[in-house]
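Cross-posting from the chemistry board since nobody answered there.

I work mostly on the small-molecule side, so proteins are not my area. We synthesized glutathione and want a rough idea of how it might sit in this target. Sequence and SMILES are below. Is it possible to get a predicted 3D structure of the two together?
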Amino acid sequence: MIELYTANTPNGQKASIMLEEIGLPYQLFTINIAKGEQHAEAFLAINPNGKIPAIVDRDSNQRVFESGAILVYLAEKVGKLLPVQVKDRAEVFSWTFWQVGGLGPMIGQWGHFSQSAPEKLPYAINRYLDESIRLLNVLDCHLQDKTFIAGDYSIADIANYPWVSGGLSFIRNAHADRVENLTALERWVKIVGERTAVAKGLEVLKSL
Ligand SMILES: N[C@@H](CCC(=O)N[C@@H](CS)C(=O)NCC(=O)O)C(=O)O
């Protein structure tokens, strides 16, 4: 049994989508990040970095934190959604870590500086917005002649989906003209969003 410690955020959604895709039984534990539960001692024992998502695999009592590491761990545990060949894995890892280290943090920082920061700093807001849009264009360009990001549907698609679908609508609300030509990306969002496991992985978090 996998214990999933999470909240309804894009990083949290990656883990629940993955668990739905691979069909392993799991138990959800809510970490209310607005109330600071990510800093509780019991949770820091699972993720010393104090962020969701994190899992504990009760088959081996292994903890795993960082959404990218969780995707790789679960894919390797069940032998799904991650190719076996080194060359094919490299492409999946490239786009998975591109998301974890780039797209997610850039959109996240744009959200922070444009919505949450007490002081509206145009330099910070524009820097993160421009970089988010540049990254969305990189993925749009890559997807011109592909159905999925790296060969067959994989953890690279799962890592990117919540941030691309959420990020696109978030940016569209404020700057529609800057994301209107990302047609390959929109097509990919539709295909991935129609998967039963993706819909279920999003749904299970809605009550948290
Ligand atoms: N690099 C981490 C980022 C995780 C992350 O930023 N989680 C956010 C929610 S999406 C969080 O826990 N925020 C609470 C906080 O920063 O205190 C990952 O990919 O898992």
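Reply from a structural biologist on the board:
Welcome over. Reading the output above for you: The chain has a mean pLDDT of 97. The longest helix spans residues 86-116. Happy to explain the token format if needed.
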